[in-house]
Amino acid sequence: MSNQRSSAILGWVVGFMVACMILAGCSRDTAKSPDGGSVSDKEPVELTIYYFWSRSYEDFMALYGNDIVRKYPHFKINWIQNTKGNSPSELIASGINIDMYYSTVDNLAQLMDLGVDPDLSDLIKKYNTNLNEFEPTIVDYMQRIEPGKFVGIPFATQTLSLLYNKDIFDKFGIPYLSDGLTWDQLYTAARSLTRVDGGALYRGYAETWFPNQLALNQLSLPLIDSTTNRAIFDTDSWKKFLNNYIRFYQVPGYEPTPEILTGGAPATAFVRDQNIAITVRNNSDFPRKSAGANLNWDAATYPVFSAAASDAGPQPQVIFWTIPKNAKHREAAFLAATATASHDVQLKGSRNGLPSVLRDPGIREAFGADVPDLQGKNAKALIPKRYAAIIPPTRFNGIVTSAISDAYQKVVLGKTDLNSAFREAVEAADKQINATLGR
After folding, report:
1. What per-residue confidence (pLDDT) applies to 374?
2. Terminus-to-terminus CA distance in the chain, angstroms?
3. Per-domain residue ranges of the chain
């Protein structure tokens, strides 16, 4: 998995694992099975589920597994993680059955390279699955991954959110952020908050895992020509987009460093050190006291590029179930997958701070209702009113976001200009893509 996708998933996993303890034992099941019939008299089924990262069986059961077996008591979960000797290629080569994979589009590309056929169109039709219940942007995305097919059941999502430290705003007498801000207005606030006080440097703004800004960019700027598999980001639109962020790090006195531009250092600076006033991070990864955060924070809606601009927030990152055509328990896996996307399960997750894949306004309104850390917060700002259209999914998006991130860092640190950095980044991305394709 690419570094970009790894970083994106890391934030999602952290937020979701914290939620697992809250979710354990609190679900309520009133949904009907897709075929409307009883399943209690069926033969026992052991569903083998594969997880590409690191999570315990107990965490998964608290998060989704208990809801599956509560709805289908004859299902038993066999949980396999991506550990040494348990890679998908090794398991498939050994003939070991996997009924469903906990996936992103990058994982799906890997599976399809191994010969997995994930099309669920026949089961969606058989069970009359209502795709209109999902967020339209997410359905459109799932249909575009493999045109003419529907390659997974979405059940989780995340996107970017804007958080700020109220104590730093108070310290310097700056008004709190409000909903509906433009990036220019945010820049003005961040500039005012960047200063040295009592020998300590306070930075107005920093992103957590900047590649997510690229992959989930709210302008839906493409990264790859899906026909030629070549990088297409050396454009005026992409340069304007990056300049919007570069200026935050060029405020006098900011003193940008490689560390503040990469990895999880901005998250640590925001939550633990509390010397960053404003940050962008995954909306499922808001500060939690149960995770050690002791921070007086709040949220505002994700900024737009102009007051007349669309109200679209960033793109969503979609987590979905991949179910192989040759899975031993394919239909049972489909029923389990749709159970995790059911109204009750999604409502429970939303109440506990997990953004939903469903479009139901009631589920959206319930977001964070059962989370102590979100009480008194502007929690509704963590989910955009409307998601930006998701850029065409390709197996090479991660390569390109990594190349753009490298270019971005070089420009911010004064090592080169943006035009030169982009030209070199396109060459580097295309070289890596060509090597992967053997051309």
Report:
1. 97
2. 21
3. 3-159+316-382, 160-313+396-437
